[in-house]
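Supplementary Text 2. Reproducibility record for the structural model of the 454-residue chain.

All settings were left at their defaults, and a single model was retained for analysis rather than an ensemble. We include the record here because the model underlies the residue-level annotations in Supplementary Table 4.
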Amino acid sequence: MSHFQNQDFEVSKEFLEVQKKVDASTKRNYRRVSIGFLILFIYCFVTSYQFGLFDIGSRWFSDRVSLMLLDTYANKDHIIMRWDNTSKISVRFEGSKKMTYDPQPDFLIYNNDGNFNTMVFTSGRKVNFYKNFIELEGYSDVVGKLRLGINNYGKPAILSDQKEIPKWIRVTENKIEVRPNLFERIQIYKSKVVVHRYQVGWRYFFFDFDSLLRDLSFNDIIKISFSSDRITPELGNNYFILQEFLNNSIWFHGPVFFALLETIMMALIGTLIASIIGLFLSFLAASNINPFKIIRIIVKRFFDFLRAVDTLIWSLLLLRAFGPGLFTGIFAIALTEIGTLGKLMSEAIENTDPNQQEGVASTGASTLQKQRYGILPQIMPVFISQTLYTLESNTRSAIIIGAMGSGGIGMLFLSYMRTGVDFENVAYVAALVLITVMLMDLFSSWLRNFIINS
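Retained model, structure tokens:
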């Protein structure tokens, strides 16, 4: 018994020594990781200070961001009155001379006595237009009615007696800016007064300002589509409705849908080319298929080279060869994905079960038949899954490279961003892109399950 006890004691002693060594090694590794994180933190802190990231608050203009976001979900009318012709007030949608209301909309009330016209905001507040000034009505932080206009020196000024000017009124030498909230804005200049009346919604989304269908309700459109009485003699009603929708001069549905189709085709054709060429080259890179090591190394380094250059860089390089257009995007996607899919497929081939190839070979099959019936069935699920996932990713990539000159919805998106005023169109295109990516994801998942499980 004492012999066994001594043996147990020796084992316990050895175990404790090993445990101490493990604990010491763990502590050393913990200290190294902690020091590494500390060095990384100090580096990030110094870099952030160097590049001025701590001053980001001073570069943030909340008013600009608010206006930009407002333009993505709201629209506005410009109510304009010139001081040299106060009897005439024009109302323009988004300030465009080509989209001037005639007759005037309901929110502009004309008084028959000729003294003034009244413009009513969506909040119920009012702006009264007189012959030589305007009057604000309904603002709780203003005692009485605030009068703004042109003083005796021909300068914009506050004409009513006010001890304190509200914070939402800014007076300069040549302009008065009134902005009590995002949806109400008044600008008074030497020559005119401009009121911006905002309201939520994408107005004239289906039919533009000049369309015969502009003011019709959804039920009216349905009735017209089934009616035998034609709106125009040369076109059927359904075709006319479709043309009016696609040729909308505000939302540009026709060009947007065509650009979206271009983007999808760019991703689809580019992925198809990459999958075919990548699958063929993957057999040359697989060690269990190609016995020539030098060829395998060349093919694998070729895959590395194609993957190392990003799709965006390929598109910029190919612009010199093909110019702006669909082919640039297609080949930029194809070149990058040949490297990706080729590498993945070559690894899948090398991991196949050799017994299936031996079974096919025992029937007297040729080398090509061994690969066709012994390897392809094993790698096909991986090939389909990776190709469809690549298609999803390439749909997003096609939007980015499209903005760089390859066309499609990306180019249209960038053109709207550059204007600085068409943020509602930016929101529209962004929503379409989001829906397209989601549908592509659902479609590829369904197709993957259908092919693999069938």
